[in-house]
Structure formats: C-alpha cells, structure tokens
Design a protein that fits this description.
Bound molecules: flavin-adenine dinucleotide
Number of domains of chain B: 2
Structural class of chain B: alpha+beta
Shape of chain B: globular
Number of domains of chain A: 3
Largest interface: A-B, 38 and 35 residues
Radius of gyration of chain B: 19 Å
Strand content of chain A: 25-35%
Oligomer: heterodimer
CATH topology of the largest domain in chain B: Uridine Diphospho-n-acetylenolpyruvylglucosamine Reductase, domain 3
Number of strands of chain A: 32
Distance between the termini of chain A: 68 Å
CATH class of the largest domain in chain B: Alpha Beta
CATH class of the largest domain in chain A: Alpha Beta
Shape of chain A: globular
Number of helices of chain A: 16
Radius of gyration of chain A: 27 Å
CATH architecture of the largest domain in chain A: 2-Layer Sandwich
Strand order of the largest sheet of chain B: 4-5-10-6-7
C-alpha cells in the first residue's frame, strides 16, 4: 500500500521568513502523491450511478445486469446503507443514495465496485433505473411558494437584521439590484480516495478533504459504526476552496470496501467532479443606501436571496455571513436586512472561499460608487469617511475590539501609482480579445475601479471552534501531530515555523494528519493559521514550560530565572546552559493542547449578537481596457492592500493574495456554471473558463498592513479569503468606469457590454 | 485494442482498409480528450505520427499544399506563414504552445468542428481536401468535405492526406473571438483575404453556422467598392455596409458559449475591423 502522507522534515525557519513548502518542488515535478495516486494490492475500483434528471421519481432500480457482469464485485443501492440513510455538513438532509426521488442532476443512486475502472463504468451504465421525471424547481424566487421538493421544505434559512432606528431616511438615496452567477471552486485534483476494511470490522479511509473529523462522524453514522472504528487519513489534496468541506464519496467508498472486504478506490472524472461537489451560491440582491448630504451613511436596507440548490450543505452559515457582512466595512448606524436561502432543484451550493461575503461585496461596492456619484463626491473619500474603526459597532451590535485598519487599507491602495496609459499597444495579447486579434488599441477605453471588503475569521454564531495539536520533542527533534488538512494554505510550513520559533529546535517533522488525534476543525473560514497554528503554538509553549520546570527542579532554581532561547534552557545569570537536545535525549517531552478561540454568541431574532471572533479587511484597485463594441476586456493592472495582523510567511502570503485575487477576477469576467432548467451546461474546463496567465497581470501589492490581532498566534490573521472578496467588485467597477454601463451581474459577459440597451441605438 | 504505427502512407492506407473502424490518431489533442471523457472508446488505433509524407508541404505558383500532419506550430511562422498569413494568424490562436506543437491541420479537419480555427481561413482560401485510400485519391472542395457540425465526407478507410489552398497576392486578416485571452474555443471567427490579381475579396466565417461559411454578397460588394488600381483604403461607410452583409451571411445559434444575437453582432464588427486592417 502506498502511504498517502509522508512525515515531512522541515528546516529551521522562523516566523516571518519565507519557509519553502516541503511539497512545493515535488508538486512542480509531478512527484507529489495526490489522492488519485493511491494504490493497494487487490484493489477494486468504485463508480457511481448519477441521475441524469434534476427532478424525478425513481420508480424502479434494476441492478441485475450490472451484477452479472464479469469483474463486478458488488452493486449497492440505498437499501444497502447500513446506518443513517442521510448525511450533511450541518444537518443530515441528503440521502447517501437516492431511493425514491432525485433532487438534482447528478445525484448519486447506486454504486459499483469492479476489478477495473472501465468495468465499473460499464456496470454503472448497465443499471436500469425507471424515472418519472418532474418539472424542476429552477427559480429561487418562486421556491417559497412552490411545492416543497424536500420533506423539510424549501426554506433553508431566513434571517433578519434589524439595527438602530429603521424609520430614518437619508437625504440622498441610491437603489440597485444585483446578481451573482454560480461559481465553481475549480480545484485541479478531482475527488478521489481509497477505503480499506480493517480487521476489527472497521474501515480506514484515505481521502482528500478539508475536515477529517466531520467526515468521520458522518461516515460512522451512515455505516452504523462507532467513530473509533472509522479511521481517516488525509491523502494528497489537489486544491479545495470549500468544495471538499462536504462529503462526496466518503460514505460510498467505505460501503463498497466493507461489502467486498477489499480496498476500493474511486476517482471522479472532471465532468463527474462538477456534479460531485457544492458550488458558490448564486444570489439576487437588492439594496437601498441612505446618506446625509455630507456623505455619512445613515441607513442601508437590503434583501438577499441565495439559491441553495437541492440540499442544505452549509447554506445556513453562508446566508448568515452574507447578512452580517452585507454592508461592507463601513459604519452603518441603521440597517434593515432580510436574508433568505432557499432550496431548488439546482446544483447544491455551499462553501467557497469568501463564504457569502463575496456576493454581498459585489453589491455594496457598486452601491458605494453609486452613492458617491449621487453625492458628487470622490468614491475613495466616501469610503474613507464611512470606514469602520476599532470601537465601532457592526450592524449585528458587535463592537470591534480587535484591529480594523480599514482607512489605512484604503489610503495605501489609493496612493499606489497607476500604470501608465501607453500611446499604443500592438501586441494583441495585451489587448482585449488577446491572441484572437479582435481589437486595436483605438477600439479601447480604459477604466479604473476600486473596492473594499471584509469578512469574519474562524467559525461564528456560537460554534465551539477548536483545534488539537501535539508537540513531542525527542533528542532535540520536534514532531508535530495535528489533524489539520493541508489543502494548499500552508500549515505545513507554519507548524514548523511556529515550533521552531518557540523551541529553537533545528528540526521539526510533521506527522500525517489523521483521526488518531482530536479534531483540528475545518480548513476553511480562514481559520487554520489561527486555530491549528494556535494549537501548535500552545502545545510548543507547554513543551517549553515543561522543560523549564524540569530544569528548575533538577537545578533547584525558580522557574522565573530560566528561559528557553535558541534551543537552550539557560538561567538569567548565565550559570545554567542546557540544550534542548540534551534535555529531551534524557527524557522526551510531549504535550497536547486543545485550543479554543474566544466564545461567540448566536444571533438573536433581530440578528444581534457578538457572533464573530475577528475580521479581515482587503481592498483592490483594477484597471481594465475594454472594447465596448465587442464587450471584450483585458485586465491591465490589479493592485491590493490587505491587513493581515502579522506576516508569518511572506511567500505564502503572496501566494494567497495572488490566488484569491485570481479567483475573484474569474468571477468578474468568466467563471460561471451555466444552469439551464436546473441542468448544468458546461461541466468541463473546456467551457467552464478560469483565467489563464494571459488573463492575469502580476498582482501589485500596494501594502501589507501589520497590526497584531489580540488572541491570534503572533497576532496573525487568516489571509485565505479576504483577497477573493474585493477583487470582483473592483474589476466590475473598472468596467463601469470604462463603459458607463450599470453592469449589475457577474460574470460580465461580452454581450452584457456589447448589446447593452445603452449601445443599441448606434 | 491494437495500435498500428505505419511508416508510409501506403501502409497507412492498407491498415485503414483492413480496419475501416479504426480511429486515426494524429496529434491526439481532440481524440484523446474524447477517449479520456469516455465519449469515444477506440477498438483499434492507427497512429499517423511516423508518416513523413503527411508532414510535407509545398508552395506552388497558385496553390499551397499542406500535408495533413503539419502542426499549427509549423503553420504559425516561417515560409508557410508568409504564403498564407491568415492561416498563420489562425494557427497562433489555437490552444496553447503545447497544443500547437501537437495539433495538426488534418486533425482540425478530421474533427470538423464549426469552431475549428483553421476552417474559416481554409474556406476563404478556396481549400480542397485530398483524401487517400487503397482505392486511390480524390480531391474535393472544403464545402463538400464539411457536411455538418463535426460531420465530414471522409469515408471509412480514407485518410486526409493534404489540404490545398490558394496562394494570393494581397493582405489577409483573421480574427477570433473568445471570452478569454487565449486557450478558448471560438465564439465567432472571421477571415478576410484579398487578391489583387483577381481583384477579389473573400470572407470565411467560423462558429456561426454548422459548417464554415462564406459571405458571397459581402465579397462581391467589397470587390466592387475597393479601388483596386489606386489607393486601396476603405471608408467607414464601406466598412459599415460590408459588416452588414457579412453579418447577414452568419447563421449562428444560441448555446452555452454565447447567444446567436451576440455572435451575429460580433461577426459584423470583426468583418469591418478586418477590412479596415487590410485596407487601412
Ligand atoms: C487544450 C486544447 C485547446 C484547443 N484549442 C483549440 C483551438 O483554439 N482551436 C481549434 O481549432 N482547436 C483547438 N483544440 C482542438 C484540437 O487541438 C484541434 O482540433 C487539432 O487541430 C486537432 O488535431 P490533432 O492532430 O490533435 O488531431 P487528433 O486528435 O489526432 O484527431 C482529431 C480527429 O481527426 C481525425 N484525424 C486526424 N488525422 C487524420 C487524418 N490524417 N485523416 C483522417 N482523419 C484524421 C482523428 O481520427 C480524430 O477524429 C484544442 C484542443 C485542446 C485539447
């Protein structure tokens, strides 16, 4: 059996240094073992039968022909689920296998294990399902009046925020409606994993996921096994961005392995992957901003409608985030928010980088520009005037107690030099339309756009969020054990850097992430640097304290005269000097810590409460060249300012800013799962377009603002999500600036510009 | 599955004759995508990569002959690019450098997608397709070769061996529109080529019909409107009318990549720009 995760050896990089990722070079060389590379002796291949219909009754399922095929080991349907028949990230409402109805195109109905992937696929094709198709519920706007498509009804969550005096009116008001299309996380490594039955009647699952323990709990419940008989190990993850927070094949693989008594591997194809994970919620938003004549925001009203698709996933948390951050990082004394997420027969939506704040940021930033224009005010001045500060109250009534350098984020970005407008551009790759030679420079108009966003870090609304880490030092070598899922965010270097910083050891190994230790929580919500980084920090600190206590005891001195510096426990007077190597060779030290962040509250019936731990702020400025006649766009320049608390690894930080920004640009210009009558029209990278090198200019980092955040390890905030939030509205603002069009929907398609009613007269 | 790797054209023809259902493999940039996605399950494959004859090309007085195995990387620069500039422009829009190193002109025709980027240029250059089998050779106009979306007149056992196109005197232009700066399937493409010897203008359109289209009325109008003996520059009004006529020749559909309305609009805009560029 190939081992999915290796113990990695880190070199001694401290906090603030660009420690290279141990998996970086192997990935570039194609040597890194992804979950799709798993292999075992006598392994079978699993495959899944999925519904071609978004809404249908299942009249019958006939597996006999599939079962009779040579090479087929088993065929399983809903009847074969040993335990709980449903699963779900927050609430079990999705059948492990559909038995009576299917609620979205691609819903799993039956499973096959066979001796070859091709045989498995052919067996899937041989399963006969009789459907009675029904008209799908495709329009979220009518979901609440439509016949429920699920026993739990079509409303997933309705949330209101009522803050301040709702009767006040602003002298200046602007109103707008906005729409966001369905974005995909578009990770490159498709869902894959392997399950192996264990001798104690349990199962070992190697899987690429974002949260091992929440998978384990769902798998155990569906298999009717105690959790200690379900052991998960993280396999090499090829990107996540939220799409691996929900269970995909986890239960299926274990069912097949337990039934056949053999290892079973599954790898989704690219097309299947589009049906195998949740996406970003499409949203329809309405806003009205009120301000006084001087530009101070008086009140904001908004209505948010998110399409959750067939099952709940994390929709209830996404809509809460959308509501809580619906105003942007501005002081809004009075707010009236109605936020709703509904069920439809469209693809299920859930977590994706930015988690609800992406959708609302697109709207509130368009509104801020509109408001500035209505006031005759500079757009940046308006944002500065209303910028949140520490001590300000959010619309949830929560007072910001941590850092919030919003004005500095805005100012530093605004001060960053703009790219020059050249006299001519002849290289078509630098013009709208790119290599297609569609556009001459004389056809182009340039525009500039600016946007600011914010979101919460860590889990909110009273969730007891924690991570567990164990640090052991033996002979001067530290080993860190944590179930934190490395999905690209960089825990592999941070765990090592934090341990080195505290203990001064020369070598830190990272043990495989698995469920033999307590939960690390999810790699999402920009939380792992804070939470698992915090757990490692606490465990390493406990090791240090133990060592100091031991020396104090042995030497008969008080602990207050001892310190651990550069791997040596020494006394302040210099008479004691004992290295950590010597100390831990004599007796290894091990400490395990469960690290919790400060508790949060639930939101009350008016959406009020201290629901969040901390916030991160970001801003982007985009410069676009637009060919208005064809509606083609070239992003000329994108610059950002971010506040990060403290930089732990500059190279990794840059990577997060670049990647997050790129994902926001993709949403602005091209990324959309096109859903027509609840059917996905483009489940491939041929037609689901993501930006290429030529679509992304080098990110200009105007400023990285460091103000250490209380409670966070070394004061570092998470940086994974914020850069995704403000890049989309900045790009679209630049397009509006170039074209004069309203452009209220993303992604902006060429026809939205070229065929806009405003142009049709000429 | 068997994979045959003939060394000569004759060997390939007899292999194709004895396995008329075999899949022919050139660069594999279409075929392997279909195999990987499970849309095509080859039983036998005849790989054409080792056949030197298919990679030959020659530039004659009036016609250029390009072997089916010539890659887009080859067409994109050098002598071929000078002789057929619009085809070179189209070649440079195909996929990425890696794809262009593998993808062949014959494969583009073999697939016969309406969005195949060489097709509109071939249409404008009065291309004919040379098909060879154990029974001999036939050469048919592109308009007879392309019979529908991804449907061609190639018969089982036949190989596309070469393409012949006009060698013209005069400027040429190709524009391809997609919603990304590169590596994108054509939403609309337009080729406009001029021949000063015969004082003619020809237009080829891609992705706006089931097969590559020409725009005869626009071509006639342009030939008439252009002052071939004097200053060959076109005015705005000529461009506008030309655009209108080209647009009318398009027969686009709505699909997940774009709308018919936008495709029609863009066809006209690109036609006008192409004409403006070749007669500045
Ligand atoms: C990432 C990517 C990007 C792409 N971008 C573009 C693009 O921008 N524009 C574009 O037009 N295309 C694009 N394509 C499609 C593809 O590259 C082209 O159609 C290419 O010309 C196919 O050539 P090939 O040699 O790879 O053909 P193959 O894949 O080998 O074959 C294609 C078809 O033609 C048949 N065939 C091949 N040679 C012969 C022959 N001599 N006689 C008879 N039949 C034959 C094969 O049997 C098969 O059916 C792209 C493909 C990929 C994977």
């Amino acid at each position: 059996m190939s081992s999915p995760t290796i113990t990695r050896t880190g070199s001694s990089h401290r906090i603030g240094e660009s420690a290279p990722r141990p998996d970086g070079i192997p990935k570039a060389r194609g040597e890194f073992a992804f979950s799709s590379d798993l292999w075992a002796e006598r392994m079978l291949w699993g495959a899944t039968l999925r519904s071609p219909h978004p809404s249908a009754r299942i009249l019958s399922i006939d597996i006999s022909a599939a079962l009779a095929m040579p090479g087929v080991a088993t065929v399983l349907t809903a009847e074969d689920v040993p335990g709980l028949s449903s699963f779900g990230l927050e609430h079990a409402d999705q059948p492990v296998l559909a038995s009576d109805v299917v609620r979205y195109q691609g819903e799993a109905i039956a499973l096959v294990a066979a001796d070859h992937p091709d045989t498995a696929r052919k067996a899937v094709a041989a399963i006969r399902v009789e459907y009675e198709t029904m008209a799908p519920l495709s329009d979220p706007r009518i979901a609440l009046d439509a016949t429920p498509i699920h026993p739990e009804g079509n409303l997933v969550r309705h949330l209101v925020i009522r803050h301040g005096d709702l009767d006040v009116e602003g002298e200046v008001q602007v109103e707008g409606s906005y729409e966001i299309g369905m974005q995909d996380q578009a990770f490159l490594g498709p869902e894959s994993g392997m399950a192996i039955p264990t001798e104690d009647g349990g199962v070992e699952l190697m899987i690429s996921t974002q949260w091992l323990h929440v998978d384990r709990d769902q798998v155990a419940a569906c298999l009717d096994l105690p959790v200690d008989k379900v052991h998960l190990t993280l396999a090499g993850v090829g990107g996540a961005f939220g799409a691996r927070e929900d269970v995909s094949m986890q239960v299926h693989l274990c069912m097949l392995a337990l039934r056949t008594g053999r290892p079973v591997k599954m790898v989704y194809s690219r097309e299947e992957s589009f049906f195998g994970h949740v996406h970003r919620h499409p949203a329809q938003l309405w806003y009205r901003h009120h301000a006084d004549r001087n530009g101070r925001i008086v009140k904001v009203e908004c209505r948010l409608l998110f399409d959750g698709g067939a099952y709940r996933s994390s929709s209830a948390a996404v809509i809460a985030n959308a509501a809580c951050f619906s105003m942007g990082p501005y002081l809004v004394p009075n707010a009236h928010v109605d936020a709703t997420v509904v069920r439809t027969n469209n693809p299920t939506c859930g977590a994706m980088r930015g988690f609800g704040a992406v959708q609302t940021c697109f709207a509130h930033e368009a509104q801020m520009d509109k408001l500035a224009d209505a006031l005759g005010m500079d757009r940046i001045e308006l944002r500065l005037l209303n910028a949140l500060e520490p001590g300000h109250e959010l619309i949830t009534g929560q007072v910001i107690t941590g850092t919030a350098p919003v004005a500095e984020v805005i100012r530093t970005l605004a001060a960053h030099p703009l790219p020059p407008a050249p006299d001519s551009i002849t290289d078509s790759r630098l013009l709208p339309g790119g290599t297609g030679r569609t556009t001459d420079y004389s056809d182009v108009k340039r525009g500039i756009g600016f946007a600011v966003g914010f979101k919460n870090l860590c889990f909110s609304e009273g969730f007891d969020d924690f991570s567990t880490a164990r640090v052991r030092v033996d002979g001067g070598i530290a080993t860190v054990k944590c179930a934190c899922a490395e999905v690209g965010q960089g825990f592999v270097t941070l765990a090592q850097q934090i341990t080195t910083e505290i203990l001064g050891v020369e070598r830190v190994d990272l043990a495989p992430a698995d469920t033999s230790i307590g939960s690390a929580g999810s790699t999402s919500a920009s939380r792992q640097t804070w939470m698992s980084g915090g757990a490692v920090h606490a465990a390493a600190t406990a090791v240090r304290d133990t060592l100091i206590a031991r020396v104090a005891r042995d030497e008969g001195v008080d602990i207050t005269v001892l310190e651990l510096v550069d791997g040596v426990v020494r006394s302040l007077d210099g008479t004691i000097n004992i290295s950590i190597v010597e100390l831990t060779t004599a007796e290894p030290v091990e400490e395990e810590i469960e690290f919790h962040h400060a508790p949060t509250d639930e939101l009350d019936e008016n959406g009020q409460g201290n629901a969040h731990v901390s916030f991160a702020f970001s801003a982007h400025r985009a410069v676009t060249d637009v060919d208005p006649e064809l509606g083609l766009v070239r992003l000329v320049d994108i610059a950002t300012s971010q506040e990060v608390g403290r930089v732990l690894n500059p190279l990794q930080l840059t990577g997060q800013l670049e990647g997050g920004t790129a994902q926001g640009i993709g949403l602005a210009l091209m990324e959309e799962i096109i859903v027509d009558e609840s059917r996905v029209r483009n489940p491939s990278f041929t037609d689901y377009l993501i930006p290429t090198m030529l679509d992304l200019p080098d990110l200009q980092i105007a400023a990285i603002i460091e103000e250490p955040e209380p409670g966070a390890p070394f004061g570092a905030k998470g940086v994974g999500e914020a850069p995704t939030i403000s890049s989309t509205p900045a790009v679209v603002a630049a397009l509006r600036n170039a074209t004069g069009l309203a452009l209220t929907r993303v992604p902006v398609r060429p026809e939205h510009i070229a065929l806009s009613a405003d142009h049709l007269d000429d | 599955m068997t994979v045959l790797s003939p060394r000569t054209l004759a060997e390939a023809c007899s292999a194709a004759a004895s396995n008329p259902n075999a899949d022919l493999l050139a660069g594999g940039t279409d075929l392997m995508v279909e195999v990987n996605s499970g849309h095509r399950r080859p039983t036998d494959v005849i790989s054409l990569g080792a056949i030197a004859e298919l990679r030959e090309w020659s530039i004659g007085e009036d016609r250029i002959t390009i072997g089916a195995g010539v890659t887009f990387a080859k067409i994109a620069s050098g002598e071929l690019a000078t002789a057929a500039p619009a085809l070179a422009m189209a070649a440079r829009t195909v996929g990425s450098p890696q794809i262009r190193n593998a993808a062949t002109l014959g494969g583009n025709l073999g697939t016969g997608s309406p969005a195949g980027d060489s097709l509109p240029v071939l249409a404008a250059l009065n291309a004919s397709v040379v098909l060879t089998s154990v029974h001999g050779q036939r050469e048919i106009p592109l308009s007879e070769f392309c019979v529908g979306p991804k449907r061609t007149d190639r018969q089982p056992g036949e190989l596309i061996t070469a393409v012949r196109i006009d060698r013209l005197n005069g400027p040429q232009e190709f524009c391809k529109l997609g919603t990304r700066q590169a590596m994108v399937i054509s939403v609309v493409s337009v080729a406009v080529v001029a021949d000063t010897s015969s004082t003619s203008v020809r237009v080829g359109l891609g992705a706006v019909g089931p097969v590559p289209l020409r725009a005869p009325e626009a071509e006639a109008f342009a030939a008439e409107a252009i002052n071939w003996s004097g200053q060959t520059s076109v005015d705005t009004e000529t461009c506008r009318r030309f655009a209108e006529l080209v647009r009318d020749a398009a027969r686009p559909i709505d699909d997940h990549r774009s709308t018919a309305e936008y495709r029609r609009h863009a066809t006209g805009v690109l036609a006008a720009r192409a004409l403006r560029r070749i007669f500045p």
